[in-house]
Every structure is written in structure tokens, then in C-alpha cells.
Amino acid sequence: MSFGRFGRSHAAFLLLIALWGPGCWAETVENIVAQPGGAGHSLVFHDNVVVKTDFKDFPHDRLTFEAWLSTSDFCHTGAIVSYAIETKTKDMHEKTRNYNHFVVFDPKNVLACRDFEFIDIVPDFLGLSCHAHYNKSEMDLSPTTANFVERDGRWHHLAVTWSAEKTHDKNGETIIYMDGMQVGKAQSGRTTPLQKGGALMLGGEQDCFGGCTDPHQGFYGMMDEVRIWKSVRTQEEIIKHMRLTGGDLDGNRDLVAYWKFDDPGTEGYESSGIARDSSGKGNDLDLFTPPKREDVWIISDDGRKLKTGALKFKNNYAMNSEVSTMPTRDISIEFWARGGNLTGDADPVTNERYSEFLSFATQSYGDGNVENDFGFADSAFMDDAIRIERYLTEYNRSDYLKNTQISTKGAISVHINANRQGNGKHEDNWLDFATNWVDDQWHHLAITWEYESGNTNLYFDGEKVVPFWRAVQGEISDEDPSRGGVDSSLAPRVERKSFGSLVFGQNQECYGGCFSPSAAYDGYLADIRIWDRVLDGNFIAKNMYAKQPANSDGLAMHYKFHKEHVKGSRERNLKVTELQGRMDLSLGSIAPSFQYSDAPLTNNDGTPLPKPSPGKMGHALKLHDRQVLMLHDFHDFPSKEITVEFWMWSIDTCREGVPFSYASGDYQSKDNTFLVFNYNNWGVAIMEDEGTADDHNAGFGSTDGRWHHIAVTWSSKTGQVTLYDNGRPQWVVKRYQGGTIPSGGTLVIGREQDCPGGCFDSAPGAAGDIQPVTDLEYGPQDYFGIIEEMRVWKRVRDPSEIYKSMKFDSDTYRGEDNFDINRNDRDLVAWWKFDEGQGYSVKDETGRGHTLRLLEEPDWVVAKWLASCGDGVMEGGEECDDGNKQNGDGCDRDCQIEDGWICDAVSPSMCRPVNSKQETGKNANNALDRRSFGSGKAEAYGQLTTRAESSGGSKKKAGSSVATVFIVLLCLVIVAFIVFVAYRKRETIYEYVPAVEDFVHASKARVGRAMGSRRDYNTLSTLDPQLTDVAPEFIDSQHPAAYQPPGRPGPYEPIPDDRR
Hints:
Elements: H1 7-20, H2 22-29, E1 41-46, E2 50-55, E3 62-70, E4 79-84, H3 92-99, E5 102-105, E6 111-113, E7 156-163, E8 173-178, E9 181-187, E10 198-202, E11 220-229, H4 235-241, E12 255-259, H5 267-272, E13 274-275, E14 285-286, E15 292-299, E16 305-314, E17 316-323, E18 331-338, E19 354-363, E20 381-391, E21 412-418, E22 429-433, E23 443-449, E24 456-460, E25 463-465, E26 467-472, E27 475-478, E28 500-504, E29 522-531, H6 537-543, E30 555-559, E31 566-567, E32 575-576, E33 585-589, E34 593-596, E35 620-623, E36 629-634, E37 641-649, E38 660-663, E39 674-677, E40 683-686, E41 708-715, E42 720-725, E43 728-734, E44 745-749, E45 753-755, E46 758-760, E47 785-793, H7 799-814, E48 828-832, E49 841-842, E50 852-854, E51 860-861, E52 901-903, E53 911-913, H8 922-927, H9 961-992, H10 994-1010
Antiparallel strand pairs: 1-11, 1-34, 2-10, 3-7, 3-11, 4-5, 4-10, 5-6, 7-8, 8-9, 11-12, 13-14, 15-16, 16-29, 17-28, 17-33, 18-23, 18-29, 19-20, 19-28, 20-21, 21-22, 22-26, 23-24, 24-25, 26-27, 29-30, 31-32, 32-33, 35-47, 35-51, 36-44, 36-50, 37-41, 37-47, 38-39, 38-44, 39-40, 41-42, 42-43, ...
Helix pairs in contact: 1-9, 1-10, 2-9, 9-10
């Protein structure tokens, strides 16, 4: 081999530098992180909203709303912005008009509406709806304006103007502009002034003041440069300023609000979580609104009293994602709650069907043998291992209840060891109890479940309630309580794991997240007790007003929310102390997340602003159905064992997206040779073996706007398939035991092929050979989102190795050396980094020649893995983030875990000394490595470890000033040489001689260890697989968002293709 024109002397000098001087140049060259471009950041909405109440200076008699939008969501008629006013009227029609005081609705056919009861009726012969007012003629019964939905997520500028002016040719005129072009006009007839002091909501539509959102009416996409003016902007003004940011716009006297969403990294955001208003009017948006603590009195009709602390919830939560003491068998849960009024005079809640008190998510126990599961999953994720909720909707006039006439308003639903979305409904276990809780007073709830019999009881204010509805493994029954009700047994002898994620105030559709504001609890919770035994009715009735129960035997967790139990340096860094000293809670809220913006903004002269710049992780690739990423003749595809792993980011809940499709034959023959499908409800098919109805899907997805590391392993010998999400083995099933996967097939990333290299399950207008809509058994199966760091191995990687892969990527992002993955590993068949940033091919880093070809114009992106230390959100390479940049509290100013501390993987982080009660005894073993992914603290199985304290060592020798100057100058020379020669040319050298790269990295690692490096990655090989089933901190790069179960959006409708 030859170094070409670089020569051997350059390589030798490079090796010398690597051996001698990593400390001199590492910081200047290696520690490079991605940076936003000129457009800064944008907000990502995914069934979550931002609300500003009491908007005192909202425009009065004229208004302009502007925003840049990016969305590929075709299955939700989402509201982009809504403005509601409070009302005391009992008239439902007037209430609805007040809540629709001003609404911009449906990106597929944008409507701007003022005080309409009906937004959209098609056809509307009577002209009752807002939609009808955009007609272009009397015969135009279904008018169209503009479609902002783009397959590739292309950005478009939206502007809406409204005026109260009434003249001979204007009557409440509303005009809609797309990219500066007028696309719709309506004479709304609404000429009364807008009322101030209302609630503004971005990303959702309000069915009551400040809330009552419907997930079907949420905006799914990105939003940037949002402006509200108190004037009607002309078309010329809109065109002139729509691509500009800041400058003359800041502080403009006609601007009422201007949100750039460029707050991450700024001092104000890091300390407050506030998106600042650049108009100068002070209309900031609060993105972090945790539950509020209050002291309350609970008084019974017979005079019994309880003074206690309470948390007030509204679209927020209290959570511990690493609970390790949840009872696995017998359990009792009791608490006080005060919810909303559901009587006839209350606000309508037609879209809010339930609100969540408690959600515990974990894994079911499996024996590791897929031979004895009778077609079911050996181990499954249970998002509803325990779930307690209150119904807000009346079902007694529907077909749901055939054998009972009771009211479901205020009914309590209890789920035990359940997951309703997958595994053939084998874990679909729940009971409903008619409590008739429709008032807004305090009530005591107690739920008990017995392991042996499955007997489930609900006590409401100390009185036992008979269930009226039961679902068990997909079979439902109902019976009026006056006739004995239904059987109260659920999931007998089903044991859940003690380790999991405990959340109050929200429902988890994925581990520790996937929350939805439509199911958020709006009310108070107080005095929560969780027991590892079944309480009887007498004990519950006697102790529910007691400050402490008479007998605390079996009390596993107790939360009282007194002032002394809710601690933190400030409001946005509060933690709730658990009275047993075991499982504290962090307080947080649901909010849109930040992502780098590539909106097409420009300078004043029209030149484009720079795009985001890549860091150590390089670029990533955005996929959609206008792209085909293909590899023909995968000649050494694994045959007997395989592991496929990759990083993904998506907010698509419309499609059953397929990230990995390998086909070696035609339809129903070998088109599904190895298929990882449906990122909204995961499944795996091998050689057409997709499982049965009982184990076809896993029951969870990964399209919640957070980064997910997905890994799938398969062994022919056992047929065992294991699917990992963020390092946790979530699903174990059996597929194609004893078979062989043929090589030489075609691999397609992001599309589902029903014949090699084509026959895609895609909607009309997609790239490639597609099928008729009527032939799409599962609807479109295209991947919409970002893909990154994909690897294929020819053996089953164990949990510790999956974990090490994630850590490798995390360390690479931070610019730190980690050599756990070697591109020359004989078991590594293919490795695609997606770092090219340009061109139509993706290089295989293994050197085996498995180059992926992009058949359409690529969409290279710089994805946000960047952490904003101090904002209270676990992101990127952060080991912790407790909401400040202070040392001494366990999480230092650089968001790294301090010596002698443990920090939980939640946002914001909870830190405590290692000798605290939560890290002793039984809990110490469980604590190993659950929090160590980003911190390198894992040392050995069964032993709690912390970052090593530096001790011993020789003292530095004193030297002359001349020697010091000489060393400094030499380092500077070395840095300059590396920057201008080695760094710019090293990839070429490495490509010609890969051994040089390996030798350089290994040498640097040896030198780093000799110099006292604080991390030793080799110790990861000692991890116990049972202790690596929790996601590390850094993967939560975004706030939790919402996962929509399959089928929720409604019937499949293809994307209109009228503009293509």
C-alpha cells in the first residue's frame, strides 16, 4: 500500500504526535459539537402544545399571524394556533364560539376562522361553517386554500390577516397567504373586536379555555419565526419580511409577539425554560410548567379532617423513571384526588375521554425460552403495568354498553399488567368501576390486586365498588352492578418487574414518555401510598384520613407533598422526597422540543443564512417516500445470526414506517426475508414469518420526537428475536427457527419492498414502483424521519454489547475516544454513518463495499444532539441536567456527574450522594449502571460504583520558566500542524491505510490511560445483562412527547397529489 503524495514521513510524524501529544490538541480538534445555523432553532410539535393565558395585549380590531411551518403529516386536521376567551355562559353554542375566538386550522387545507361554532362542514349547503366562507363561487361547496403538507417536510411560510372593518366590499375580511402568495379569502361577517386576556395555544385547538385538546387536531411538525401583529400586513410587507429574522423586526411597534425559538444555549432559557418574546412586549412562552404544591384541607361529611400537601397538575407530571421497589405481586395503591366538574354546567369535554392519575410501565417476566410461549411473546413491554384513570365521557348511550345503563362519566378504569396495542391483546387487562364521580370535590381512591387470584377491587371513599366492564385478553363483557357486575379478576399469576417508570398525571405509551395533553390529569393529588400487600376495606376506611397509617407493614412508597418534602433551588428544579427514603419524584411538563431549524431565511440582501454545521456525529439522512436508499446484491448478509441496530428520530404517527427491508425474492415468497417494520407498533418478520395475531406487534413505537436506538437480534438455533429500544430488551418472540437467511438479496432503507428493489407499499406520488392504494394491506409503510449510525452484525449481540454500541455513539458525539467498536471487527458486516453530507452514496465503513445508493435527490441534515446544559432537559452527551450550572449539587456546571454522586435519568435530573438511603441495601444492586451510560461509572456486576476519585501519584516536578515556555510553544506548533495537515487529510490517510487509524486511536487510548484518563471502557464487558435494561441519560434529547397507537388517526387516505 502507498500513502500517495503524503509520504511515509507524514504518517510517521502523525503517529508520533498521536503517541506524545493528545492532551495538546484534543480539545481544539476532537471536541467539536454541532451548531445551529442562521435560522437557529425551531419548535417540534407532536401532540403537545404551548399555552399562554391572560394574553392582555392580543390584537383588537385587526391582526396578522405569521409562521414558518414544516410538516409531512397528512392524517391530522391539526390546529396551528388557537385563541380562546373565558366564558360563563351555559349555552353550548356560544361556549364553542368563544373557544374558537380565532383559529388557524388544518395544514392540508388551511382555514382561518373567527368565532365560528363549526370550522369545517363538507359539503356545507347552508354556509354554517368557516370553511364555506372561502368559496370562490356559489357552486363551490368544498373550497380549497393551500396545502402546507410536504412529503419531504419542505418549509412554507404562512400568513393570515383579519380585519374588523365593515364596508361595501369588506365584512370581517380574512386573507390567507402561502409563501407570500394569496391562496384564500373570506368575508367572515365577524366584525366585532377580538377580546383581550384570552388563552393563546400553539400546536392545538382548545375545546375549553386553555385546554381540552384533541390529539386528532394537533399540529405535527416544526414551527419557527412566529409573529403576531396588531395590524393587517399587506402582501408586499409579508413578502419583504417573511425570510428575515431579527433586525428591524425586533421591537417593531406593531408587533404584539415575536417568537424566534432560538433560546437554547442562552442564559435566560437555561435558567427559566422560557421562550422569549422579541417584540419587546413581554409575551414570553413558558415551556416548563411543573405541578404546583399547595397545602389543602380534606374534610368529610362526618367531620373527619386531613391537612396535607397536594400537587396541582395541568398538562404536567411527577415522575421517577427508575423505580426499583414497585411490588411485583400483591399490591394496593391509595390516594386522594380532586378533579374537574363533569356536571351539565361544566365545560364540554367531548374530546378528552379520560385523565390519568397514575401510570407504571415495565416489562413482563419471561423465562428466556421462546419454545413454551404458545405463540405469544416470551417477554413484553407493559406500558399499562398499572394504570388508573378517570373517564370524562358518557358512553351509556353508545354501542359500548349493551347490558348496563349506568353513567360512565367519572368512572374509574384500572389496568393491571396490560398493553392494549400489541401481542394479540394478550395483555389487554382492565376493569371499569361506576363511581359517579362528577363533582370537583376531594375523593379517596384505593385499588387492590391479588397476585394468585387476580382479584381487583376499587374502594371509593372507603366503599367497595362493583365493576361494570371487563376486558381480558381482548374479550370484553359488561353487566350492570345492580345485577352483580362483571368478574373482578385480572391477570392472575402474572408477575411484572419491580423496576420501571412511575408517572403521576400522565399516561405512558412508551417507557417514561409518549405523553399526550389530551389524557393529562387536570386536578390535585395528595397522600399517595403504595403497598406490597392487599389492604382490606376496613383498614382503608379507618386510615384514609390518618396522617400516618396505623400499621405501616408493607408500605413500599409514600408521597405526602408537604412543603418540607418538595425541595429544590428554584421552582423549575423541584423534587418530591419519598417518605421511605427510596424513590423520589421529579416534576416536569409536556412541551414541544427544540430542533435545528433549516427554514429558508435570508440576509437583507437575499443571500441565504448558513445552515446548521455538523459536529463529531456528522450529518444524518432524512428519509421519506420520495427517496429510495438501496443496496443490490448484499453478498454476505448474515444467514444464521444477525443484529441490526440504528438510531432514529421521527414524529410520524400516520404510517407504519419500515426502517429496514431485506428481500431475496418476490411477494409472499422472500420479499420479507428480514424486515423490521412499523415504527408506531414494532414488528419483525424473517423469511415471511411475521408471527401470529398474538405476537405480530410489540405494542409500542418510537415516533415521539426523541432519539431512539433500535436494535433487533435473531438466532436461527432458537428462533429468538429480541427487540431493544434505547438499550432495554422490550420484546422477545420466536421467528423462523432453524432456518437460513439467503444472501445476495436487496436491502432498502426506509421503504417496504414487496419485490426486490420495488413494489413499495407507498401512497400515490411516492418515488419508485408503487402499488395501488387498494392493495396496501397496512397502508403506506414508508419511513418519515431521520436515520443515523446503522450497523449490521453477523451474530447476536448481547445486552451489554448493545449498551456499548450506544455508548460508543454518545462518546463520539462528545468528541471523546471510545474504541469499543472497530470497523475491522470480523463480525461487523456493514456500518453506515450517514456522514457524507453530500452526494448520492453512503459509504460502508467496514471496507466490505456495501455502499448504499440514493436514487433520488438526498436530504442531508444536521440533527440536534446538542445539549443545553442547565435547562433541566437531558440531551445529547449530558450525564445529568438539574436545571442549573452550579457545582456541589451532584451535577456540575458542565452537566457531568460529580464525584461521589448518583443522578437519575430524568429531566430535570435528581442527584444524591451515593451513601443516601436510595442507594443502600437491596436498591444498591439495582442502581448499578442504570445511570452510567453517559458517565462511564460502570465497574463491575453487583457493585455500586462512582467516578473514581483521584489519589496517590507523584507530584509534578518544578521546572524553569524557560522549559514551560518551550513546552507551550511546542504544543502550539503541534496544534497548528495537526489542524492544517493531519486533521484535514487524515480521512484520506485512513482510507488508504486503515491500520494507521486503528494504531493512532489505540496509541491515544494508551497514552490517555497512562495520563490518568477518568474513564475505562473495558470495564463495560463486566456488565450484567439484567442491569442494562434501562436507557442511558443521553438518549432523552427531547422532552417526552406523545405516541399515537396504530389505527388512531382513522381510515387511511392517500396524500393529495394535486400540486405534484
